[in-house]
Amino acid sequence: MSIQNNLKQVTVTQIFKKKNQEKITMITAYDALFAKIFDPFVDMILVGDSLNMSFFGEQDTLSANLDQMIYHTKAVCNGAKRSLVVCDLPFGSIKTPKTALKSAIKIYKQTKAQAVKLEGGLEVVEHIKLLVQNGIAVVGHIGLKPQLVRLEGGYKIKGKEGIKSKEFQKLLEDAQAIEEAGAFCIVLEGVSSSVAKELTQRVKVPIIGIGSGVDVDGQVLVWSDAFGFFQEFKPKFVREYLKGANLMQEAIKNYVEDVKTGRFPSKEESY
């Protein structure tokens, strides 16, 4: 199979059917330019609230708001014609099931996103049920939940004590409850590989990992991590496929030098 699939838009049903059949690829994007670049290759594009850190320069995701998410999702949808676009529901936008429904409806009405993602396990099951009942496709998110970073005192890996631990049982209960509520896939973040593998085997919906090992149904990375643009720190689970920041810095130095020395623009580049 070619990594460049046909131009027909990827659907929720297609993602669901990839379970145990084909690895799912997901990358974040926040604008039309990069969405258009990624679109021919990946199955899903996530407009993550991670934009608050990599795009806006904040220390965590918590100050991202719904209007920001809608703005960036509109842009991504303008660039992505094939990939399934998922919009994160930001911190504070799902306080109750009715609040979550109101937020998700606003996203659906104002963008062309095919799904929303929300963080949480058993505590958001009623939210997911209500969204699905109202025609909104949902991606769950369990394990390390960035929206709880202040409550938990940092980004903490889950499942370190293995599949016999209470933490594993909680993760399993969360995953099964999210599946039963109607989510079509689940993002599993920052979970030990052995626990992630067991969870993936025990649920019927695809598990998309980030920092959760290889034995899941797919992977998601933040684009600025994967391509070397975010330089503040590099998580252990990130593989850099490009030294993006270094390449850009070299290019901008060349541009500045050409301008200051009069090499740019040339006669051929002038009217």
From TrEMBL:
Catalysed reactions listed for this entry: (6R)-5,10-methylene-5,6,7,8-tetrahydrofolate + 3-methyl-2-oxobutanoate + H2O = 2-dehydropantoate + (6S)-5,6,7,8-tetrahydrofolate
UniProt-annotated catalytic positions: 189 (proton acceptor)
EC number: 2.1.2.11
Subcellular localization, as worded in the UniProt entry: Cytoplasm
Sample GO molecular function, one term: 3-methyl-2-oxobutanoate hydroxymethyltransferase activity
UniProt keyword annotations, A-Z: Cytoplasm, Magnesium, Metal-binding, Methyltransferase, Pantothenate biosynthesis, Transferase
GO biological process: methylation; pantothenate biosynthetic process
Pathway: Cofactor biosynthesis; (R)-pantothenate biosynthesis; (R)-pantoate from 3-methyl-2-oxobutanoate: step 1/2
Needed cofactors: Mg(2+)
NCBIfam families: panB, PRK00311.1
Family: Belongs to the PanB family.
Oligomer and partners: Homodecamer; pentamer of dimers.
Protein name: 3-methyl-2-oxobutanoate hydroxymethyltransferase
